[in-house]
Every structure is written in C-alpha cells, then in structure tokens.
C-alpha cells in the first residue's frame, strides 16, 4: 500500500489497519499508521485509546482521548471512546479524572447510553476503593438508568461485593433475577469471591454449587477466592480437596492459587501434602515466582522438614527479605541456631534490609536452644538499627532469661515494658518451671492478662489450691477473658484430622 502510493485518507482501509496492528499488540506500527492519517476516523481514535489502555499506558490513553475531545481532526468522541477512556481511569485508580469524563459525557448527551453508564459504574466502584463515595456515585447512576443490561447489574454487584457490603450485593443479585436478567458467569463469580473473603464462608460454597447447577463454571478468580477462604478459615483439608476439584474442571492453577493453598499445608503440618503441592508448582511452571517459593519454604518449615526448606531456598534465583526471614525462622525452630545466625549475616552482606520479623526469628532461635548471651547481644544490637523492639521481641528475651533461671532480671525487664499477654505468659511460665510460684503470683496479679491468669490458675491447681483456682476462673469469666483452645493435627496414611482441647467449665 505504501509503495503503491494509496492516499491514507481515502476509504476505511488505513483505519482498519490501525485496528489490526493494535489488536495484535503492535502498538508502534498502529501509532505509525495512525499518525499518517490526516483525518482519522472515530474508529481509528478508539483503537488507539483502547490499545494504550490495554498495554497499561493509561496516561497515554487519556492524552489521546483529550486530543480527540479537542476536535482538532473534526471527530468527536462517541460512546466507545468514553468507555475506553474510563477503563484508563480505572487503570490509574483516578476517580477525579473519571468524574471529569462523567461531566463531559453528560454534556455530550451520552450518559444515558448503556455502555457509557456501565463504564462509569465500573469506574466509580473500582476507583472508590473500599466503597464510600465512589460506591454512592455508582449506585445513584445505577438507580436512574432507564435500561440495564447484565453488565450493569454485574458491575454494581461486584462493587458491593468488593467493598464487603454483601447484604446489598445479595439484594441486587435477587432483584436482578426478578427483573428477568439472568446472571452470567461474571455475576456469579463476583458473588462467590465476595462471600469467600467474608466470615460467612458457607455461603460461598453454596453459591459455588448453585453456579455449577446452573451449568456455569467458576473462573480462576472464584476458585482462588474459595481456596484461600477455606485456608484462612482453618478448613485446610477442604481447601486441599477443592484444588483437585478445580483441576478436574480444566482450570489451571496460578501463583495466586498456590499462595492461598500453601498455608493450608502448613496449618495441618502435612509434609506429604506439601510435597504434592510442590510437585504441582513445578508441573504448572510456577516455581520462578519468589512469593510462591518463599511460601514453600515456610510450608516445609511448619511440616518439620528444614532440609527440604533449605533446598528450596538454595535453588531460588531471586530472594527477598521475607525469604530470608522464613529460612532463618525455619533453622531456629528446629534448633539450628548457628545456621540462623550465619544466614542473618549473609542477609546483611547481600544488602537485604532486616525488619522486626528478622529479629523475632533470631531471638526465637536463641530461645529454642537457650543461648542467653547471644540472644541478649542480638536484642541490644537492635538499638543500632531503625527497628524498634516490639512485644514479641520482649517476650523472647523474657522467656530466654526465665529458662536460664535469671528470673529477677526478667521481672525487672517485664516491669519496664508495655504489658502484653505474651510477655506476662512467658514470665509466668518461667516461674512455673523453676518453682517460683510466689514471683509468678505477684507478676500475674500486678500485670494481669489471660495468659498470666491461666498459668496462675494451673499453678494453683498443681499446689492443690482449688479455691484459688475457682477465684481466678471466676475473675476471668467476669472480665470476659478467655483463652483460645489448642488445636492438634494427626496424619495417618492419606488422612489428616484435627481436634481441639477445651478446658472444663
């Protein structure tokens, strides 16, 4: 065409070529052809705006829209132009510019158009993070629309769902059906994802089943949300079972799936399950992700296999501070404190910033094997950094001193720091080990807290002081103080099961 000298402004051919290159992801060629047009059509302008937004160059998309709006080429934006420009506002999370486009659309008489209104609702819902004013704007626009499509309903439902307003999302979901609008896969997925992030997790599973009964398949986002929700709500075995169901439907897991799933393996302490997920990571070629591999290090640590964790760590091409923290903590909790300290030194030499988690892992490592002097030295070295000692650091040091029999020194430290259950509990436990019930009783009464009260009650019970036990329990009940029950997991062959331990009332 260029060699034949065809005039770019004759016929729609060049505009279609602009669209062709843009749709194939060749933005440079598309832009080159577009600049050759003396009078680009709205069709060509729209493709340039859409291509820029699709590539993530949202600012350029809005600049192109602004040029089109000025009418320098004699072409004004149409409903598609506004819809694509609003997508760019979503990409930038810029509700201010979205409002400006809303004003221009209203002045141009295009606000009533369903595609423009849908794009506006979507923009307000996504740019108004957490709901608030953005969601209010979206709802006002939704309520005054004379005609609504399934996309309209889905955008509004998704907005409420993401904001955690599940009650309103459910009302709209049911109202949609009453309006003879059939929910599509995106609608169902928005509802499932919303309930999966909420404590009312049973509704997410019920919706998942209902969606399948309607002949629709959940998308990857919904599966990920449900898997992560099950794991987060302590239903680890169900999360692992759901992964198999997901794969059976032909949905390929991604890094988000694995990130939601790996904590489930750690919670039930199943090395076999951890290895199975590890194999899946490699088969799905997800092992190059630093977040996935770091989570894998953590899983092997929690499943009691520091050797597997270290092999994963050593093979990682990219590491971050979280990766080092996970490995330092793993060595520490398995009594390999020398390796923890050596890895800490390597972490600093390689320029990774240490944080409060790093020091918690190190101090915990010293506590596990009773390295008092080393632990105190690490604790004092925190003063040379920007990391402020927190309650976990103090609890580690108090526990370390108590186990070494240095109770007076530990008590002096306890009195100087902010009171917290973990600190009081560590001190009371140390007193119990060394038979210093008198000191524990003084500390528990002065400092209070559920952990101290429970340990005090246990010490009274061991000494046969049942009336004192009853007084402590009654005091706890009156103050609404309770201790979370312990949970243990047992794995035999291919079955894992958990049980809770409850105190007697």
TrEMBL record:
GO BP: any one term: RNA modification
GO MF annotations in UniProt: RNA binding
Keyword Transcription regulation: no
NCBIfam families tied to this protein: PPR
Organism: Iris pallida (Sweet iris)
Ubl conjugation recorded as keyword: no
PROSITE patterns: PPR
Key words, A-Z: Repeat
PPR repeat intervals: 149-183, 184-218, 219-253, 320-354, 355-389
Protein name per the record: Pentatricopeptide repeat-containing protein, mitochondrial
């Amino acid at each position: 065409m260029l060699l034949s000298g065809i005039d770019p402004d004759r016929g729609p051919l060049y505009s279609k070529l602009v669209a062709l290159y843009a749709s194939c992801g060749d933005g440079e060629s598309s832009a080159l052809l577009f600049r050759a047009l003396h009078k680009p059509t709205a069709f060509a302008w729209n493709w340039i705006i859409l291509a820029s937004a699709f590539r993530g160059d949202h600012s350029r998309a809005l600049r192109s829209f602004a040029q089109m709006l000025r009418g320098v080429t004699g072409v004004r934006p149409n409903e598609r132009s506004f819809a694509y420009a609003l997508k760019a506002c979503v990409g930038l999370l810029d509700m201010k510019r979205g409002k400006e486009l809303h004003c221009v659309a209203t002045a141009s008489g295009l606000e009533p158009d369903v595609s423009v209104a849908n794009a506006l609702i979507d923009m307000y819902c996504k740019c108004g993070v957490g709901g608030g004013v953005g969601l209010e704007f979206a709802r006002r626009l939704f309520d005054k629309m004379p005609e609504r499509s399934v996309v309209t309903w889905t955008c509004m439902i998704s907005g409420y769902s993401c904001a955690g307003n599940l009650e309103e999302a459910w009302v709209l979901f049911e109202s949609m059906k009453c309006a003879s609008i059939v929910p599509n896969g995106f609608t169902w997925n928005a509802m499932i994802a919303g309930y999966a992030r909420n404590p009312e997790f049973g509704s997410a599973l019920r919706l998942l089943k209902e969606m399948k009964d309607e002949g629709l398949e959940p998308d990857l986002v919904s599966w990920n949300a449900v898997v992560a929700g099950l794991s987060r709500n302590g239903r680890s075995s169900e999360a692992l079972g759901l992964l198999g169901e997901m794969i059976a439907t032909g949905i390929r897991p991604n890094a988000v799936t694995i990130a939601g799933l790996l904590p489930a393996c750690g919670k039930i302490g199943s090395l076999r399950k951890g290895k199975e997920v590890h194999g899946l990571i490699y088969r799905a070629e997800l092992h190059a992700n630093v977040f996935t591999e770091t989570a894998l290090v953590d899983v092997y640590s929690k499943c009691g296999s520091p050797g597997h964790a270290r092999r994963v760590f050593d093979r990682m091409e990219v590491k971050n501070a979280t990766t080092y923290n996970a490995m330092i903590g793993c060595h520490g909790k398995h009594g390999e404190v020398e390796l923890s300290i050596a890895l800490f030194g390597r972490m600093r030499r390689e320029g990774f910033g240490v944080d409060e988690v790093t020091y918690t892992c190190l101090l915990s490592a010293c506590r596990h094997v009773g390295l008092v002097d080393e632990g105190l030295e690490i604790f004092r070295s925190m003063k040379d950094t920007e990391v402020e000692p927190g309650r976990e650091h103090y609890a580690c040091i108090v526990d370390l001193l108590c186990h070494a029999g240095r109770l007076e020194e530990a008590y002096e430290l306890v009195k100087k720091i902010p009171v917290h259950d973990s600190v009081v509990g560590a001190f009371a436990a140390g007193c119990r080990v060394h038979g210093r019930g008198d000191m524990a009783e003084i500390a528990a009464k002065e400092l209070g807290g559920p952990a101290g009260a429970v340990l005090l009650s246990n010490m009274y019970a061991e000494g046969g002081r049942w009336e004192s036990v009853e007084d402590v329990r009654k005091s706890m009940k009156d103050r609404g103080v309770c201790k979370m029950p312990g949970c243990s997991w047992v794995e035999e062959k291919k079955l894992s099961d958990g049980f809770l331990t409850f105190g007697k009332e």
